[in-house]
Design a protein that fits this description.
54% helix
Length: 260
């Protein structure tokens, strides 16, 4: 027994002990080996993570959220707010449609120029006029001259023959009315003027003469309003009618305080 070698026995016993201890030792965590700093690929920083989009609110949540309220307008703000006036010369549709309270009075109508003188009866005797009308016009011209000279009685006798020769001679009726007026027969004068007016509607110069003479008759009868209306009508037809212009002036003087 002295020569028995114990080394193999202890060696086997030591290995068994080591295996037992190794089995009982808890396992070590696995670590990723750190790459060497010399690797240029691994030194690049990793890409930043992309932002995650926020989720959209659901329809129910947006419906439940109250809408922002508009600020209330106070009456004081309206008073303090300056009014913007339109530029001069420009007119808005609202201002054009509204009537103006301070409208200026309408401008008076422009007075038409006087009509050319058409009082010569001899100028109306043309080759186209019949002999009967020509004779009546000549007698009318003679009666007119007698009236201008102040002989109303002789003028009346001469003028009565004019309508006997030609009953359509409107100028004969006018001067008959004028002779009756000069003799103070105002009603008879107005009757002859009505006949003359119906035949002289298309001759403004002579129609103005008719209205002026009618105004003279109305004034002589004391019908001043009718006289004024007749004078004004004559002036509207012919602004150069002196009889009507003088008649209006006399009426104004009569109605003035100094003329009463």
């Amino acid at each position: 027994m002295a020569g028995f070698d114990r080394r193999p026995f202890f060696s086997a016993l030591s290995i068994a002990s080591l295996l037992t201890c190794a089995a009982c030792e808890p396992p070590r965590p696995y670590r990723i080996p750190v790459p060497p700093a010399s690797n240029p690929v691994l030194r690049t920083p990793p890409p930043a993570p992309s932002p995650v989009p926020s989720p959209l609110p659901s329809p129910d949540e947006s419906a439940r959220k109250p809408l922002p309220q508009e600020p209330k307008i106070r009456e004081q703000d309206l008073k303090d707010k300056p009014q913007i006036e339109p530029a001069p010369g420009k007119e808005t549709k609202e201002s054009a449609s509204l009537p103006s309270t301070g409208e200026s009075p309408a401008a008076p109508e422009a007075t038409p120029p006087p009509l050319p003188d058409d009082s010569s009866l001899l100028a109306k005797i043309t080759p186209a006029v019949t002999a009967q009308r020509a004779a009546s016009l000549r007698l009318t011209e003679e009666g007119k001259k007698l009236l201008d000279s102040g002989d109303a009685a002789r003028a009346l006798a001469r003028l009565e023959k004019t309508i006997v020769i030609d009953s359509t001679n409107a100028y004969g009726y006018f001067y008959l009315a004028k002779a009756q007026y000069r003799l103070g027969r105002y009603r008879e004068s107005l009757n002859f003027l009505d006949i003359a007016e119906s035949r002289l509607r298309n001759e403004p110069f002579w129609l103005a003469e008719v209205h002026a003479l009618r105004g003279e008759n109305y004034r002589a009868l004391g019908q001043f309003q009718s006289a004024e209306a007749s004078y004004q009508q004559a002036v509207r037809l012919n602004s150069g009618n002196r009889t009507a212009a003088d008649g209006l002036l006399r009426l104004q003087n009569d109605n003035s305080p100094s003329g009463k």
